Amino acid sequence: MCGITGIINKQNPVQLSELRAMCDRLKLRGPDAEGTWVSDYLGLGHRRLSVIDLETGDQPMFSPDGNLILVFNGEIYNFQELRAELVELNYTFLTSSDTEVILNGYLQYGIKELLKKMEGMFAFTLFDKEKDEVFIARDKFGEKPLYYIENEESLYFASELKALESKFDKKDIDIKGLNFFLSLSYIPAPHTIYSAVKKLPAAHFIQYKKGQKIQFDKYYDLQENIANQPVQDNFQLACDELRTKLKSSVEKRMVSDVPLGAFLSGGIDSSIIATLMAEISDTPINTFSIGFKEKTYDESERAQLIADKIKSNHTVHFLDYKDVVEIVDDIILHYDEPFGDSSALPSYYVAKLAREKVTVVLTGDCADELFGGYEKYLGQHYIAKVKKWPKIFQQIVKAGVAITPHTRLTNSILRRAKKVLSNLDQSEFEIHYNLMCLGFSDKERFALLEKDYQKEIKSEIEIVYNSYQSSESLEKGFYTDLHFVLEGDMLTKVDRVCMKNSLEARVPFLDSKIVEMAYRLPVNFKIKGNNKKYILKETFKDVLPHETINFRKKGFGVPVDLWFRNELKAEIENLLSKELIERQGIFNYKVVQSLLEEHLSGKENHKGKLWNLFVFQKWYLNKIEEA
User: Fold this and answer.
1) β-strand 147-150 against 198-199: which pairing, if any?
2) How far apart are CA 463 and CA 453, in angstroms?
3) Apex 354 CA angle, 349 and 359, nearest 5
């Protein structure tokens, strides 16, 4: 795992000092080595975290004739198959690195066909001297990040936004990015919080030839790839296929020249991955988990149950408020732009814990998006049930929910009840969209923002939702979440907290063969009644404890709702003070004041909205006011 950066100047030569300064901002991604290369209008930089081919894997990497130059961040999990294929075609390899496969693969297949063949997580830049062409690519599902800035003079790019911060006006906030953040709690590609900076979308590459306009192209489309594949409607065969494919994916992601382990929350997904790793490994695997002294949020016993069953070397660390408050600012600002998923805090700690013993971890991410694991996917199920109630009974329930205060005992059921009751008259898309908005709804966001900062975001999500060719609204929802939630939230969260600890995270569920298989399954294989991830549970019920199969999903949350009423009360009041809000000119103070008062009194639980505001204000004070 590494970090890459680069400069393409359209007129003037690249300065090595400028490139090295950008590289220096990526040291945490690659603490083991730095490499740079400059020639006229192009400069390429690389920071390395050594994982495979420790002796000969330094970058930039050159083809034997010096014509191709490459900087690469990530892993190619099928590099051994590709390498064997290329050796059969008489290509020579000088290293055992997966990176060298890109050089020879490009010569044989061309950039687009090579990218289609590559199974992995990556962002890379390849320069073909002879053709005077530069290619910048990102993996199929967006595991590895790639930011870029294009202006009249240059194209700058980097694995993290921090490497680009000296190249643009940080006070120029992107209004659409701001609106996405406030509602979704993250900013999906291609948007960022800055007008000048974009993210390269997943499954895309940039092509640049000197003197010509920069071109963007898409090399992988999930719907096109499954269009001619038959639906797998035999449940037992589907279970067998899933088990075979997932075990193969885990095995490929266990290839490493450094110690590796697994994040183990005790939920279905991470438990399956850890169990498969234990089956494959000849020695006990390393597993890592975080517990909470706040018992409502603690799942450490669930993780211990699996650890005992697979006989792993299990390490657990218990967090309380004091642990988190020490690092909250550091974690928030490490994302470089507002990022409102509060589970980044415990995720950072489990990454830090793991890095003490290993350099690579496998995670259970992506199973929720593929196999229907989120509570929101049951929204239509519960809405349909409530709609059958007599109107008078619906009104009585609404009134009762409205006057019930939010306490530790009522929080969970009230939040779910309010989401169901507020969506009774909505379309299938509206229901999914509203449940995607973990922060502010459209109406709430427009009330919060001053007029100059208001921007519509729903249509961009609706285009993706409607682009999936299916009559099943749940399938459209899964596809939408794969596009937005996975790339913008889950993968971003894990990449940054792991890279901050110089730890590489690998996601076995996010193998394209598994993704494509999931989209060939009937919806009722994934969600049966209100039983989420049904096929995962049935496939692995013989190797998982009965309790694990039946645990209710908690997620990796932290009690920010309680902290805002206690330990963080003074700070949130200061960040949302009338003086600061009016100085910014972004938010309506009366709306902010009302949110805070309702939360502190227990009338409502506004933890998602307030956490987003808390994160934004921290970012704003650090990046905008200090700019």
Assistant:
1) antiparallel
2) 23
3) 130
Q: What are phi and psi of 555, to 5 degrees?
A: 85, 180
Are the beta carbons of 383 and 423 closer than 8 angstroms?
yes
Strands across the sheet with 61-62, in order?
61-62, 68-76, 120-128, 133-138, 204-209, 215-218
Phi and psi at residue 136, to the nearest 5°: -125, 120
Instruction: State the helix-helix crossing angle for 411-421 and 391-403, rounded to 10 degrees.
Output: 140
What pLDDT was estimated at residue 501?
Answer: 92
- Rounded distance, CA 427 to CA 416, Å? 18
How many residues can be counted in the chain? 627
Element (H, E) at 505: strand 504-506
84-125 pLDDT per residue, tens: 999 999 999 998 889 999 999 999 999 999 999 999 999 999
Please enumerate in sequence order all residues whose Cβ is within 8 A of that of 416, keeping only pairs 6 or more positions apart, or say none. 375, 382
Query: d(Cα 248, Cα 463) in Å, to the nearest integer?
Result: 34
Where do the H-state alpha helices sit in 254-407?
268-280, 300-310, 321-334, 344-355, 367-371, 379-387, 391-403
Cβ atoms of residues 60 and 126 within 8 Å: no
By DSSP bridging, strand 313-319 and strand 286-292 are: parallel
- pTM here? 0.93
Categorise residue 366: left if φ over 0, alpha if ψ from -120 to 50, beta otherwise.
Answer: left
145 CB neighbour count, 10 Å cutoff? 24
Q: Which residue from 455, 472, 388 is spatially nearest to 424, judged by alpha carbons?
A: 388
- Per-residue model confidence as pLDDT tens digits over 413-458: 777 777 777 778 889 999 999 999 999 999 999 999 999 999 999 9
Phi, psi of 53 (to 5 degrees): 55, 65
In one-letter notation, the amino acid at residue 325 is: V
When pLDDT is averaged across residues 314-329 and rounded to a whole number, the result is 86
Q: Which amino acid is at 375?
A: E
Range list of β-strands (E), 17-160 = 33-39, 42-48, 61-62, 68-76, 120-128, 133-138, 147-150, 154-158
